Amino acid sequence: MARARNIKPALFKNELLGVADPLLTLLFESLWCLADREGRLEDRPLRIKAETFPYRDGLNIESFLSELQSMGFILRYKVGGQALIQIVNFKKHQTPHNTEKPSELPAPLTEGLSLNNEKKTQALPPDSLNPLTDSGLSDTKPAARGDEYTEDFEQAWALYPCRPGASKKESFKAWKARLKAGVDADDLIAGIKRYAAYVAAMKTEPQYIKQAATFLGPGEHYKANWTIQPRASPHKNDRSAAAAAIFGTNDPQDRELIDVN
């Protein structure tokens, strides 16, 4: 049974949903309404489709749900063979009516899930749905006095792909170490944006996303291009022949020059 839920203006400025298919935003909002007071619901794409888009045909809800998970808004999991969905940080941003019945669905086994991934629903200014302003991984305590998180770090934290178990405190230490080493904050943020786009495009499972502290560490992962390599063309031989005619060479490297697909 669907329930009434809250929607705050900042949702529409979310940097991830804002550039994705608009139907993803509608689906995400619908999941709030379909979830119980703990933010859980059965992972039944056909039923979710019937409740959310009863008059639209040709929608791949399974794909949409997978994309929401890859973006960090939900976690799809199984307990005892039952497929379930946990909406990340649901209770932080929703206040279920006190008459709602307790959840009958088991919680995910991932430790600290309710504190992870919240930043995916983040990346905005204060106010809002506040997945967008609070950083969102595993820390529940504020930074120690004299070691408050800086504005540029908060921006980077909100943009970083959600990774279960990530530590904001350790990530901030790595961030400060890079700044102390002379790395510009804008370069770190640009690297995070490239990685976030890569993770979303590759639909990387949350557990395989690099820890933010590692990404910002001495390994300098933030310097990588994080571009998706094009697949080899199925008509490679034909293109190679064309390249030979164009460049007047049979050198394999030259023939690869027009293999851009």
What features would you highlight for this structure?
261 residues; mainly alpha; Arc Repressor Mutant, subunit A; three-stranded antiparallel sheet; 3 strands; disordered C terminus
Brief sketch in words of this structure:
This protein is 36% helix and 6% strand.
Q: In the CATH hierarchy, what is the architecture of the largest domain at level 2?
A: Orthogonal Bundle
Query: Could you describe the largest sheet, including whether it forms a barrel?
Result: 3 strands, antiparallel
Strand arrangement, major sheet: 1-3-2
Total DSSP helices? 10
Whole-number count of domains: 3
The Cα radius of gyration reads 22 Å
Provide the structure class: mainly alpha
Shape: globular
CATH level 4 superfamily of the largest domain: Winged helix-like DNA-binding domain superfamily/Winged helix DNA-binding domain
CATH top level of the largest domain? Mainly Alpha
* Euclidean distance between termini CA atoms: 47 Å
| Helicity level | 25-40%
Element layout with pairings:
Blueprint: H1 22-34, E1 40-42, H2 45-52, H3 61-70, E2 74-79, E3 82-87, H4 90-93, H5 151-159, H6 168-180, H7 185-202, H8 212-215, H9 236-247, H10 252-255
Antiparallel strand pairs: 1-3, 2-3
Structure description:
The structure is a single chain. Strands 1-3-2 form a three-stranded antiparallel sheet, with helices on one face. The longest helix has 18 residues, at 185-202. It is mainly alpha-helical. The radius of gyration is 22 Å and the shape is globular. 36% of the residues lie in helices and 6% in strands. α1 (22-34) crosses α3 (61-70) and α5 runs parallel beside α7. The chain folds into three domains: 9-115, Winged helix-like DNA-binding domain superfamily/Winged helix DNA-binding domain (Arc Repressor Mutant, subunit A); 135-223, no CATH class; 233-261. β2 and β3 (82-87) form a beta hairpin. It is built from ten helices and three strands. Residues 111-146, 244-249 and 252-261 have low confidence and may be disordered.
